[in-house]
Inverse folding.
């Protein structure tokens, strides 16, 4: 097995998942890169490796003070062997947004994540149909307040602006204000049986209903097509637009490959890598809007493989990745609520994006407050030598021989973190810090602590903010 | 960097959880009050009367004391159009000053960007708490956010002080900008160094500080003490932010126990803070804004109150023209908004007043609109 196989596998697992411990990278690299891509793309054919029965009883949704649902989501991200299935949930959650600050009903919100888990790698058309019938979405974007003769444009607009076409492409607008209105008309009557109540009246799951009496049956013209259009027809028209192919491709690129500019600039700012975007657009149409097919092309492309450390990790990637690395929370136990607070402090509270635009990504994850939280959280985690994942790193380093040079210790840690790359300057500083004592005895009592300290400085680097 | 103590300073205290406006400033002579509040009512003789109509809750004696000295503006009936009764969304609205659409950035972040456009001082805005409140989060604006002056900066997990000093030294070198490393890397470097520098400067604040004032041991009081220390150290901070933990005032039940305790704690802390500044001849330099996300239901639910709308906010300081502002919302059944106090003045009127009349800024671009201003700043 070539060294660069591990590096590629570390990269793939950081992007298509939430990272992996070294032994998993070795096992996957032995199986092969393309085989691993196929395994990730076909979660239904592989066990998830979790005791969900226990987890579901453990992280119950009790009320909004004892949350349960975010913890359960985090538990799955940490432990699912079907890593892409969980990662794609996070991908869509950041685009087809709903937010707890309005809904205040975790069970209803969770249903949307289930939709992403089941359809997130399937047809984009099915996904748009799914969210258009999703009670959380209908309530979040007020489609339940949109009636025949008195439309509420909220969903109709965001469906076009933020969920499919985008405002514009190559400097041109993708749709008009009339298209927004016609789109909203087409979705009248798509509502929910129970509106989600504000507390304190309790909460009960809402259901999608189609109310033909409240549906505007008149003729509509949407993106140049005229007829008695219903929501399904509008979605059919949306998915065949080149703008939709562009929009989804750019999102996939921004999430899985490298940070692009923020979405509101996409109308006027061309993609960072137009060739790769073109390749994804072509696959979108070739595969009948199939996300799995697009990702297959993407993960096997050189553009992807060469984009190591071209993205600033999101807070959730940071937290879940750290917990997977140290090997904590492999089974349900009390205390996982803290993870929810960490997400908040670092700026990405699951199920509660700041607006329907989702989270801004890339360098916008980082400010004076979030940076400090991120570094302290990861630093404190990796220097805790009682964690099994850290133990395993210590053992692997000790197995290299009776002594380790300062270079050997730093390079060994970087390798075991999934082949992290540092600038030469940073690596030199890390080595210098370790040089005072000279070589370390790997069977000495302080060896574990020494490894912890080295890991701690590595995760505090600028380079480690990237994935 | 200017470190003049004379620059006006705004201290914002976020009292999360939605304190019960009706029992904070109490319409004690309104017959509807005791009808709605058979359990939670405060007897007229216990109310700290402002006039024949309204008065402070008895737990707020220290604030009442400041009020009697003419230093407290009570903004009655504060709110915003189409009130939302969700803590999170409503707090978002107060933070972004954008009730109509989801706002991405904070009003104080925008104000800080205005005050310090060239980012000359990493401490123009300082938050004490966990995580940066959205009010301070604005793209391109650097704000220091710390858990307290005793736990500053990165790598706080390193207990050995020598070891930590050494680690921070390496950290500073690792985050030094490198030529040609790209926009994102430069930004990360700058943010890392700002955090480090901010922490370094803030760490000096307690050294020169002495005071006869003894703050309470609770987190909120300690944070207010930190705010005083930072201000008195003359570090050029213009916006200092802290608050109670999320949900603190969310008294759906057992309000008679929790509510007086919280207001007692907050009132004492605010009075201590004011006295501390006064002792250092700095009370004229600072104005405090205290707010919560919304009011609570007029009709009590048994032992507590549920989410409502119209609220009350406070502005405190030497520069404040004390008194009642806004109208007290009516308790007549048909004047209530779905059983809640009807708001009558937009919270952005208060923001605009603070920004223009106190901070000397142009409020319009910061609030993205023009709002009527109060006269509560002298």
């Amino acid at each position: 097995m070539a060294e660069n196989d591990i590096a590629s596998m570390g990269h793939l697992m950081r992007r298509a998942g939430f990272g992996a411990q070294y032994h998993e990278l070795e096992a996957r690299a032995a199986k092969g890169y393309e085989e691993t891509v196929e395994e990730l793309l076909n979660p239904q054919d592989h066990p998830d490796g979790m005791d969900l029965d226990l987890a579901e009883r453990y992280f119950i949704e009790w009320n909004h003070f004892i949350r349960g649902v975010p913890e359960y989501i985090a538990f799955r991200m940490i432990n699912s062997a079907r890593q892409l299935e969980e990662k794609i949930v996070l991908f869509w959650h950041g685009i087809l947004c709903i937010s707890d600050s309005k809904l205040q009903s975790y069970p209803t919100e969770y249903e949307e994540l289930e939709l992403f888990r089941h359809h997130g790698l399937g047809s984009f058309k099915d996904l748009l149909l799914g969210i258009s019938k999703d009670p959380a979405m209908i309530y979040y974007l007020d489609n339940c307040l949109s009636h025949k003769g008195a439309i509420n444009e909220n969903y109709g607009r965001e469906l076009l602006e933020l969920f499919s076409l985008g405002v514009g492409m190559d400097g041109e607008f993708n749709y008009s204000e009339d298209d927004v209105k016609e789109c909203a008309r087409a979705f009248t009557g798509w509502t929910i049986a129970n509106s989600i109540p504000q507390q304190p009246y309790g909460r009960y799951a809402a259901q999608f209903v189609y109310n033909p009496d409240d549906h505007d049956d008149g003729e509509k013209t949407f993106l140049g097509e005229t007829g008695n259009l219903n929501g399904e027809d509008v979605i059919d028209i949306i998915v065949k637009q080149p703008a939709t192919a562009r929009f989804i491709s750019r999102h996939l690129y921004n999430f899985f490959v490298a940070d692009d500019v923020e979405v509101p600039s996409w109308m006027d700012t061309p993609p960072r890598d137009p060739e790769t975007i073109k390749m994804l657009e072509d696959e979108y149409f070739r595969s009948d809007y199939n996300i799995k097919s697009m990702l297959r092309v993407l993960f096997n492309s050189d553009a992807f493989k060469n984009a190591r450390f071209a993205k600033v990790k999101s807070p959730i990637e940071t937290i879940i990745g750290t917990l997977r690395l140290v090997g904590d929370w492999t089974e349900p136990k009390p205390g996982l609520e803290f993870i929810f607070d960490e997400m908040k402090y670092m700026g990405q509270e699951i199920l509660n994006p700041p607006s329907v635009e989702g989270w801004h990504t890339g360098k916008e994850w980082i400010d004076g407050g979030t940076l400090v939280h991120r570094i302290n959280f990861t630093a404190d985690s990796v220097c805790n030598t009682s964690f099994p994942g850290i133990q395993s790193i210590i053992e692997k380093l000790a197995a290299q021989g009776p002594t380790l040079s300062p270079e050997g210790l730093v390079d060994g840690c970087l390798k075991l973190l999934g082949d992290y790359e540092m600038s030469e300057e940073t690596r030199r500083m890390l080595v210098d810090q370790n040089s005072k004592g000279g070589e370390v005895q790997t069977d000495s009592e302080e060896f574990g602590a020494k490894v912890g300290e080295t890991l701690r400085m590595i995760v505090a680097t600028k380079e480690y903010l990237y994935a | 960097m200017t470190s003049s103590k004379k620059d006006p300073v705004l201290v914002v205290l976020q009292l999360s959880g939605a304190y019960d406006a009706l029992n904070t400033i109490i319409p004690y002579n309104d017959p509807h009050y005791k009808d709605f509040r058979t359990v939670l009512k405060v007897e007229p003789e216990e109310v700290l009367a402002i006039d024949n109509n309204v008065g402070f809750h008895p737990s707020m004696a220290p604030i009442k004391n400041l009020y009697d000295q003419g230093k407290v503006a009570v903004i009655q009936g504060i709110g915003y159009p189409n009130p939302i009764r969700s803590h999170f969304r409503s707090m978002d609205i107060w933070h972004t000053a954008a009730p109509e659409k989801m706002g991405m950035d904070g009003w104080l972040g925008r104000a800080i960007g205005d005050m310090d456009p060239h980012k000359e001082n990493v401490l123009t805005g300082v938050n004490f708490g966990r995580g940066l409140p959205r009010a301070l989060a604005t793209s391109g604006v650097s704000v220091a956010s710390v858990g307290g002056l005793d736990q500053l900066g990165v790598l706080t997990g390193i207990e050995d002080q020598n070891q930590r000093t050494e680690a921070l030294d390496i950290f500073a070198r690792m985050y030094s900008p490198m030529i040609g490393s790209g926009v994102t890397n430069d930004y990360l470097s700058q943010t890392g160094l700002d955090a480090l520098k901010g922490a370094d400067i803030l760490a000096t604040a307690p050294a020169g500080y002495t005071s006869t004032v003894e703050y309470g041991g609770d987190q909120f009081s300690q944070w207010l003490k930190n705010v005083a220390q930072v201000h008195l150290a003359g570090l050029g901070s213009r916006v200092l932010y802290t608050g109670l933990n999320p949900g603190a005032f969310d008294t759906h039940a057992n309000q008679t126990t929790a509510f007086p305790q919280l207001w007692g704690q907050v009132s004492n802390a605010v009075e201590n803070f004011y006295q501390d500044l006064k002792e250092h001849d700095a009370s004229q330099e600072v104005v405090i804004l205290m707010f919560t996300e919304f009011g609570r239901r007029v009709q009590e639910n048994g032992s507590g109150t549920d989410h409502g709308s119209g609220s009350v906010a406070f502005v405190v300081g030497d520069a404040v023209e004390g008194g009642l502002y806004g109208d007290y919302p009516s308790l007549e059944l048909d004047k209530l908004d779905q059983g809640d106090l009807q708001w009558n003045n937009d919270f952005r009127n208060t923001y605009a007043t603070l920004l223009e009349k106190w901070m000397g800024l142009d409020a319009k671009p910061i609030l993205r609109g023009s709002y009527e201003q109060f006269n509560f700043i002298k």
About this structure: Chain B has one domain: 9-154+214-367. Chain B touches chain A through 54 residues (CB under 8 Å).
